Amino acid sequence: MEPGTVRIAVDLLGGDAAPAVVVDGALRAVRADPDLHLLLVGPAEAAGELIGALDPAQRARVAVRPVDAAVGMGDHPAAARADSTVRAAVHAIREGTADALVSAGSTGATVTAAALGLGRWPDIRQPALVATLPAVDGPVVLLDVGGSLEPRPATLARHAALGAAYAAVAHAVGSPRVGLLSVGTEAGKGDRVRGLADSALAAALLPGAGRYVGLVEGYDVSFGTRAEVVVTDGFTGNVLLKAIEGAYALAGGPPPGGGAPRAAALLGVAGTVVVCHGAARGDDLSAGIALAAHLWRRRAADQVRALLAGADAGDHAHRTDRTTDTEVRTS
């Protein structure tokens, strides 16, 4: 386990079975990591139940911020603007009393609260949720899995850059291979959005010495032989993620070594945010908290942002050189 004190704000009211399952996950996490400090954001009664189950040394690493209002799973994401546990958890990061947050509540509300409360990175219009999935040949980074549901070529291209940088930083993948999810690997397969994104990515410079390998199919996510990063829109990605989770359940659980399938990191906001599946169990919440701690300790958000900025600068210079060369040859 990586060393270093880290403070995680946990949304006690996020999830289908909250607060009981969140309390279970938080207990597991604080017992497993001696350098982990938790800020429990939610009803004082639920927080007290967790604290009462800890020994004195563990209890000293847990604080409480009483909040009784939550954003329901069926509420509009705009509800995150009102007082709620997820909004209070975001505020804890902003004010410096927490380093990261974990919520299994409404994805839309968590993304909205983080984008409004922490701000987006430059040139990021749609933050992306990135999940790491076990595959035969090693972990595969899949994005977007629900951060932005509207498929746009520019968004897919931007998320490809985010995914390449994340794979390099969070998983130490050298020169990550990036594929665009479609209905076939042959050129021209897929809809207009995929076609435009494919052309844009073929000409782009990706962070972390990433390289675009073209179109991939759904089974490439399970095998991992063609790409370490698979890019799609948030709607398709979320459907695919839940289908894979269902397959894991039928098979008795995910294969080892792939991270936390029910926890996704939010990229593109100025902070460390992890969103867990609403149906997450205690072990899933614990894994989500561990992922948030890992990302904070590695300063992953800052490193991903720096890699993205470097790639943007290189891409701009590359395009400028190509334009200048064209002008010279045609003058």
Topology (elements, then pairings):
Blueprint: E1 6-11, H1 20-32, E2 36-42, H2 44-52, H3 56-59, E3 62-66, H4 85-95, E4 100-103, H5 107-118, E5 128-133, E6 140-143, H6 153-170, E7 177-181, H7 192-202, E8 211-216, H8 218-223, E9 229-231, H9 234-250, E10 263-267, E11 272-276, H10 282-297, H11 300-330
Parallel strand pairs: 1-2, 1-4, 2-3, 4-11, 6-9, 7-8, 7-9
Antiparallel strand pairs: 5-6, 5-10, 10-11
What does this structure look like?
The chain is an alpha/beta fold and 331 residues long. The chain folds into 2 domains: 1-119 and 269-298, 3-Layer(aba) Sandwich (Isopropylmalate Dehydrogenase), CATH 3.40.718; 127-261 and 303-331, Isopropylmalate Dehydrogenase (3-Layer(aba) Sandwich), CATH 3.40.718.10. The protein has helices at 20-32, 44-52, 56-59, 85-95, 107-118, 153-170, 192-202, 218-223, 234-250, 282-297, 300-330, and strands spanning 6-11, 36-42, 62-66, 100-103, 128-133, 140-143, 177-181, 211-216, 229-231, 263-267, 272-276. An 11-stranded mixed beta sheet has the order 3-2-1-4-11-10-5-6-9-7-8, with helices on both faces. Strand 7 (177-181), helix 7 (192-202) and strand 8 (211-216) form a beta-alpha-beta unit. Helix 1 packs parallel to helix 2 (44-52), helix 4 runs parallel beside helix 5 (107-118) and helix 6 (153-170) packs across helix 7 (192-202). It starts with 5 loop residues before the first strand and ends with a helix.
